Fold:
Amino acid sequence: MSEYDPVDPPVALTVAGSDSGGGAGVQADLTAMRAHGVFGASVVTATTAQNTRGVEDVNPLPADHVASQYAAVADDFDVAAVKTGMLATAEVVETVTELVADFNAPLVVDPVMVAATGDRLLSPAAEDAYEDLVAAATLVTPNVDEAAVLTGNPVETPADAEAAGRELVALGADAALVKGGHLSEGAVGEDVVVDTLVRAEGDSESGGPTVDRFETPRIDTDATHGSGCALSSAIAARLARGESVRGAVDVAVEEMTEAVRRGYDVGEGPGAVNPTV
Ligand code: PLP
Structure:
């Protein structure tokens, strides 16, 4: 008989929606976490009936069931990082905000609002409820549309993205990564994606927050389904392994180019990113 020889990785938790098409949501999160050397547990907030063409149906789960899933995980595992994705309703946003209030490890908040296909994944009433969850975040990772909703200002240029990041930090987040994948124009042109990281951690010269910009090549494809989920989960996994926010973001942003370039050409729609590359 061979010796039992288990591995003992850090545990991260995703609190997010299920994508029956497999490309985004909990399915992408757990894949990304495992690819980054972390065991992933999951609290499902909603199930969606969707495929690569779009979302057919959304079924938010009751907030008390979200809470009981969270309690089951927290009761058993030493959770080293939490990532939140699609939270669907104001009740779930509020419940999750209460649940993570006692959590003493990194919290990555991906404020998922609308799918790339334009389908809503968050009820409009829940947008205001996000303020307290953002304030509790180690890192909040909005795309430009979500950053605009959270700050109340349009985000159309890299300068707007930096201003939005500063605003989210002023709201209480330790750091904000404003993802520029949806910005088509900017001082730096159309061939690059500019992601802006603002950290509350002081800049010794200016005395204000620290700003870093990450520029990566833009890949010419519509198959970016799951990119936000995979990115925020890769960052959460790296934080669970003890990396810094700056270090985790740097690696995860760099790898996302490859995850898009080597995406999965599955289904009749545009496919999905590949969180395992
Ligand atoms: N979560 C779920 C359950 C989804 O279905 C989607 C998109 O359809 C998202 C999150 C957001 O996906 P993305 O990573 O493309 O932002």
Observations:
- The beta strands are 11-19, 39-51, 54-60, 79-84, 107-109, 139-140, 175-178, 192-202, 209-217.
- The pocket of pyridoxal-5'-phosphate is lined by residues 16-17, 19, 24-25, 48, 50, 85-86, 112, 115-116, 121, 225-229 (CB under 6 Å).
- The first helix runs from residue 25 to 35.
